[in-house]
């Protein structure tokens, strides 16, 4: 065996078995590439260039056997610090079994439970990486775009109340708010897209984190920027429009909290799914109209659910108006539903509908099939 390595796993030295060298640089974990992508996304929440699931297996392994087509969990040899390498080594010593042909999603569960102990150290490093000039620009972009979005949406609701005698029962009030949502969100996403991705919404940020597009510390700073911007926008509206009350999101009398939360979750799923599609670099033809597609989705959802739950889809907008108005009633509706819907969208888009490893030709055929 090269470099004095040793093989673990007993009879599991063949395809699907656990096998790695003294430097623990290779570990056979998956028997299919489909299992590699989700785990890459999950580990990317806490780790940066320290772990990677890959199907690029060398032609020969450390044990001299054919690597075949089974993917490996790889660990770069140039570990940044000895502590990280020692923890990695200890983790490998805890895996004397092999997944064999067990589905990747199941076989990784035990690995994740053990491996989670390493998260705090790398999470600290992640926080350090979130305070960089580029990151600060992204947080500022999220603050500015969210501020103007909330200003336009809440401001339009205040304007409709002032102009219409009974805005709550007037359909034109709903149209005003829906149009404001469409234009404001499209513009907000557009102006922040190159700096921060144009989330403008904690639910979108959560969906991106679940999907592996951003890591957890960055998502937390995005949330802080968005929430602060929403509160500041509502305070500005309250101060400048003397005598006007800041409206809050409420659910209809005939609606239950569960029903309203479910409605918000479905709408947010559609919104976040559209955000994923609009920002997909593999859909270059949609890049120019991406922000408009996101805004149109939000506007349509407001028209559909405005009379029932308010059509928030944005926990920051609901939170900011509630804080300034002095009441946090039904806030769980505007957090639980949207976050669950966003998480489902983040998991489905890259892992099921448009997996990252799908050939471009297949993706093009699917796109052409729906073209008019």
Automatic annotation (TrEMBL):
<keyword id="KW-0472">Membrane</keyword>
<keyword id="KW-0677">Repeat</keyword>
<feature type="transmembrane region" description="Helical">
    <location>
        <begin position="286"/>
        <end position="305"/>
    </location>
</feature>
<keyword id="KW-0812">Transmembrane</keyword>
<keyword id="KW-0813">Transport</keyword>
<feature type="transmembrane region" description="Helical">
    <location>
        <begin position="332"/>
        <end position="349"/>
    </location>
</feature>
<dbReference type="Pfam" id="PF00230">
    <property type="entry name" value="MIP"/>
</dbReference>
<feature type="transmembrane region" description="Helical">
    <location>
        <begin position="136"/>
        <end position="159"/>
    </location>
</feature>
<feature type="transmembrane region" description="Helical">
    <location>
        <begin position="171"/>
        <end position="193"/>
    </location>
</feature>
<dbReference type="InterPro" id="IPR023271">
    <property type="entry name" value="Aquaporin-like"/>
</dbReference>
<protein>
    <submittedName>
        <fullName>AQUAPORIN-8</fullName>
    </submittedName>
</protein>
<dbReference type="GO" id="GO:0015250">
    <property type="term" value="F:water channel activity"/>
</dbReference>
<dbReference type="InterPro" id="IPR000425">
    <property type="entry name" value="MIP"/>
</dbReference>
<dbReference type="GO" id="GO:0016020">
    <property type="term" value="C:membrane"/>
</dbReference>
<feature type="transmembrane region" description="Helical">
    <location>
        <begin position="258"/>
        <end position="279"/>
    </location>
</feature>
<keyword id="KW-1133">Transmembrane helix</keyword>
<comment type="similarity">
    <text>Belongs to the MIP/aquaporin (TC 1.A.8) family. TIP (TC 1.A.8.10) subfamily.</text>
</comment>
<dbReference type="InterPro" id="IPR034294">
    <property type="entry name" value="Aquaporin_transptr"/>
</dbReference>
<dbReference type="InterPro" id="IPR022357">
    <property type="entry name" value="MIP_CS"/>
</dbReference>
<feature type="transmembrane region" description="Helical">
    <location>
        <begin position="214"/>
        <end position="238"/>
    </location>
</feature>
